[in-house]
Amino acid sequence: MARPREFNEEAVLEAAVQCFWRFGYEATSVKDLTERTGLTAASLYNAYGDKRGLFRAALDRYANGSIGNRIRRCEALPPLEAIHAFFDDILRRSLTDRQHKGCMLVNSALEIAPHDAEFQKVIAGVLARIESFFLGCIEAGQANGTITQSVSAEVLARHLLGVLMGVRVLARVRPEKALLKGVIAPALAQLAPPDVQSN
Questions:
Q1: CB neighbours of residue 39 within 10 Å
Q2: In angstroms, what CA-CA distances link 159 with 23, 121, 165, 183, 185?
Q3: Can you give the pTM of this predicted structure?
Q4: With CB atoms counted within 10 Å of each terminal CB, which end of the chain scores lower, N or C?
Q5: 131: which residues sit within 8 A by CB, 6+ positions away?
Q6: What are the pLDDT digits (tens) for 65-109?
Q7: Has domain 7-61 been given CATH number 1.10.10.60?
Q8: How far apart are the first and last CA of the chain?
Q9: What architecture is domain 77-197?
Q10: Helices 41-48 and 51-62, axial angle in degrees (round to 10)
């Protein structure tokens, strides 16, 4: 029978998320993690195996928390409004991120996924979840007439995913409101039915 954790796992994982998110996987040392989590190196290894194991747990927490919570909030809204709310939240977070951390998932996709098959699969799965959210909203919006049917739902969902990735990368180096809105606005305008676009 597994021994219960002798520490607050929620607090430890949140501290690890913040550390990896700010510095990236490679630049984060075990010393950084012990200082920020309050765990000894021995406790960290006993609980998570190694730095990689703790990173996997931190990435899961980020995906289920930050990303999962955003999707759940937006899914409660009408389809087109849900997509707008999703990007409004991304824009707000990007502009108020004083450390220019960007998105931990996107950062990991750029830093780790090209060289690590396991994390490539994990990150691709989360991106598929976001794409599925967009697809569900678009299909519902096309069904009720609030989103254009002139482009397939699959194409629109993939386009929105690409826009999201671009915004999150741009926000790390040029977190400028006009720039980021200029990327998002045309993508959202493309969703409107032709009669709305022409008005």
A1: 22
A2: 29, 21, 10, 12, 13
A3: 0.90
A4: N
A5: 157, 158, 160, 161
A6: 999 999 999 999 999 999 999 999 999 999 999 888 999 999 999
A7: yes
A8: 66
A9: Orthogonal Bundle (1.10)
A10: 70
Q: Which long-range contacts (CB under 8 A, 24 or more apart) does 122-128 make?
A: 122/56, 122/59, 122/60, 123/59, 126/63, 126/67, 127/161
Structure tokens at 56: 């996997």
3-state secondary structure of 97: coil
Tokens of 108: 């990991």
Ordered by start, the domain boundaries in the chain are 7-61, 77-197
Rg of the chain over all Cα atoms, to the nearest angstrom: 19
16-31 per-position pLDDT tens digit: 999 999 999 999 999 9
